[in-house]
Design goal:
The N terminus is likely disordered. This protein is 36% helix and 17% strand. It has 18 helices and 23 strands. It is globular and about 80 Å long. It binds flavin-adenine dinucleotide. The site of flavin-adenine dinucleotide has 45 residues, from helix 3, strand 4, helix 6, strand 8 and helix 7.
Length: 680
């Protein structure tokens, strides 16, 4: 392979697997030592000269941290950017919800951090299923992100002396997380938004708000445009460009209940998959340990309590089953259980990392305690997150300064104030604890991209949460914001030039071309089909059923039988969707139910992909826990001999046919692959 091979995605090698031809994917990782690859790449990649940039149009779908940072950077570089989002303002992208922080290897705390350590922690946190070269690059550019954001005016928390403050997140023994109270995503997005609007004002970025990408248009094998629906008028419109960048976020809402914003969907990603982009590691779904527990059947949203709370909050359940039963019956409250009768099970099981073990480990440990009957709420599906010890040590003012808005949010939702003093006994002050339980939060899987963030369709790029690239089987806290901004500000603006370098010789493509006609007609026909089903069930009722199937069969603990059953149920649900869906209203004008129906059609396909991938991966790693594959202590048991690869699924022409599995073998040069250890 040449150092900067220009062949996209698929290498010449094919193999017979289960009677279908499978491909070995070429990730186009530059040669040389891991620490030098990115520098080498930038030194040798092709560039686009300033005059030619003026001739090139780039479509960026999404205005979250990934999309807004990419669109503003590309605009500033001189490209003409068309930037789309479904909300009425780029500022309402789901990234705004991010609470806890963003990682960077600045080592401001002088606690032994380094680019290497951030790289190592991320690969280890991902249970050795991430691509080494990508993760190194991510750690390398992490520091630039903080500088960029500070220059934009992002109000990161500071120490008394003026230095930027840091706190700790799971899977790390250093404090490398930069934050702005519990509103880090919002502040970072305001920074990216101001850069974006600067380019809008300069005429380099044209914004299309309330537009939803429905399809990608492929011409001569390359992504050359999109079909988007104006969500207000209902009209389908065509847009052409020299490259298309997808930055549309994750697919967690397939599970119906998740911490994601209600509008999060995977339609753009799935449509790219239907057109030939591969979907990698879809079974790697993150279940976050600290969410407010489900409280009833009519709930449509779950609320995250940021991982940052685990810096000072201690997680526990009672030691005695009688106390757990009393808590479930409501005859005792958390503060009635004396300190010596509390089981701080994370500190007990993982002394080296304590409450700051990675999310997959913390979630499974909570499930294990609740499965054994030690859950603390009326459903038995909750554990305590308690600040008593830290309030006593630091004072309520300090704790409120750190987490005030999270405490307020918890109180607004549950009517319990976690900072409220209840009683003192034996020198220990008891405060009301929070109750938390794991919930679907983030998706590590996504569109397969090579080192240059290009999918298997030339000219189609994927960045941010919608690609699969950097987190392996489990993402560490505060690393999603880092990845989205790394992709948008510092990686794609380089790598896309390697593709665009020879594109300026082509004239702008007219949207009257037959490929645009065909794509628009297909989208229109599909919307008509959905409206004409005229069945009896609402979108939400079918979506909720999908969520139940996925949580039950493809959730925290997965088995062969459960997954097979799940796939059967999902297929039956697709049939139900296709024959018994009811969508009110018309194609013209605003029709939110119709938009949701399109999302649901794609969540069903995504759900089946998650289950199919989980069924094939006969090992446990990170967020993918196969109950058949665990150690005696209940820890995930990987099978590196057979599954040390990225699994990338290829669509086979219709939603019902099982996709073909292609593989990208993982190659580690400097990290020794071993069993994860957070105990010592
Ligand atoms: C509650 C919560 C808290 C979090 N806290 C943290 C944290 O503290 N630290 C951290 O690192 N990570 C955190 N995360 C994860 C992180 O917020 C996300 O992974 C990240 O913000 C995703 O950014 P993105 O740009 O990839 O996508 P998003 O922010 O989801 O943006 C997607 C964009 O795509 C657009 N879009 C979607 N579909 C279409 C379509 N078909 N057509 C047109 N436009 C479309 C949307 O309008 C939007 O503009 C948190 C996640 C949640 C749910």
């Amino acid at each position: 392979m040449s150092r900067l091979s220009r062949i996209s995605g698929i290498s010449g090698t094919t193999r017979k697997n289960q009677n279908k031809m499978t491909k070995v994917l070429n990730s186009r990782i530059p040669e040389g030592p891991v620490a030098q690859k990115w520098t080498e790449f930038k030194a040798h990649q092709r560039l686009v000269n300033p005059k030619n940039k003026l001739k090139l149009d780039v479509i960026v779908v999404g205005t979250g941290l990934a999309g807004a940072s990419a669109a503003s950077s590309l605009g500033e570089m001189g490209f003409n950017v068309l930037n789309f989002c479904i909300q009425d303002s780029p500022r309402r992208a789901h990234s705004i919800a991010a609470q806890g922080g963003i990682n960077a290897a600045k080592c401001y705390q002088n606690d032994g951090d380094s680019v290497y350590r951030l790289f190592y922690d991320t690969v280890k946190g991902g249970d050795y299923r991430a691509r080494e070269a990508n993760v190194y690059r991510l750690a390398e550019v992490s520091n630039n992100i903080i500088d960029q954001c500070v220059a934009q005016g992002v109000p990161f928390a500071r120490e008394y002396g003026g230095m930027l403050a840091n706190r700790s997140f799971g899977g790390a023994q250093v404090s490398r997380t930069f934050y702005a109270k519990g509103q880090t995503g919002q502040q970072l997005l305001l920074g990216a938004y101001s850069s974006l609007m600067c380019q809008v004002n300069a005429g380099k970025v044209k914004l299309y708000t309330r537009y939803e990408m429905e399809d990608v248009v492929i011409i001569d094998g390359r992504a050359r445009g999109i079909i988007a629906k104006n969500l207000v008028t209902g009209k389908l419109e065509r847009f052409s460009g020299n490259a298309v960048v997808i930055a549309t976020g994750g697919y967690g809402n397939a599970y119906f209940l998740s911490t994601n914003a209600m509008g999060c969907n995977c339609t753009a990603a799935i449509q790219c998959y239907r057109k030939g982009a591969m979907m990698a590691n879809p079974s790697y779904v993150q279940i976050h340990p600290t969410c407010i527990p489900v409280h009833g059947d009519n709930q449509s949203k779950l609320t995250l309590m940021s991982e940052s709370l685990r810096n000072d909050g201690r997680i526990w359940v009672p030691k005695n089953i009688e106390d757990a039963k009393a808590l479930q019956a409501g005859t005792k409250q958390g503060w009635d259980i004396p300190e010596q009768d509390r089981d701080y099970y994370l500190e007990r099981r993982y002394p080296a990392f304590g409450n700051l073990v990675p999310r997959d480990v913390a979630s499974r440990a909570a499930k294990e305690r609740c499965d054994k009957g030690f859950g603390v709420n009326n459903t038995g599906l909750a554990v305590f997150l308690d600040f008593s010890e830290s309030i006593q040590r630091l004072g309520i003012n300090e704790i409120r300064q750190r987490y005030g808005n999270l405490f307020d949010m918890y109180e607004e939702i549950t009517d319990v104030n976690p900072g409220e003093f209840v009683r003192s006994e034996g020198g220990f002050d008891y405060y009301k604890p929070m109750m938390i339980f794991p919930a679907i939060h983030y998706t590590m899987g996504g569109i397969w991209v090579d080192y240059e963030l290009q999918t298997t369709i030339p000219g189609l790029f994927a960045i941010g949460e919608c690609n699969f690239s950097d987190h392996g089987a489990n993402r560490l806290g505060a690393s999603a914001l880092m990845q989205g901004l790394a992709d948008g500000y510092f990686v794609l603006p380089y790598t896309i030039q390697n593709y665009l370098a020879d594109q300026s010789i082509w004239p702008r493509l007219s949207t009257d071309m037959p490929e645009f006609d065909e794509a628009e007609k297909a989208v229109d026909a599909e919307l008509t089909r959905l409206l004409n089903i005229k069945g009896k069930r609402s979108v939400d009722s079918i979506h909720k059923e999908l969520g139940h199937i996925l949580w039950e069969h493809v959730g925290m603990g997965r088995t062969k039988e459960g997954l097979e059953e799940g796939i059967k149920l999902i297929k039956a649900l697709r049939q139900e969707f296709n024959t018994n869906l009811f969508v009110p209203g018309a194609k013209e004008g605003l029709n939110v139910e119709l938009d949701k129906a399109v999302h649901l059609r794609d969540f069903i396909l995504m759900g089946e992909l998650i289950a199919t991938d989980a069924l094939h991966r006969e090992e446990s790693c990170g967020g993918h826990f196969r109950e058949e594959h665990q150690t005696e202590e209940g820890e995930a048991k990987r099978d590196d001999e057979h599954f040390f690869y990225v699994g990338a699924w290829e669509y086979q022409g219709n939603d019902d046919t099982t996709p073909v599995l292609n593989k990208e073998p993982l190659e580690y040069e400097i990290i020794k692959v071993q069993t994860r250890n957070y105990k010592n």
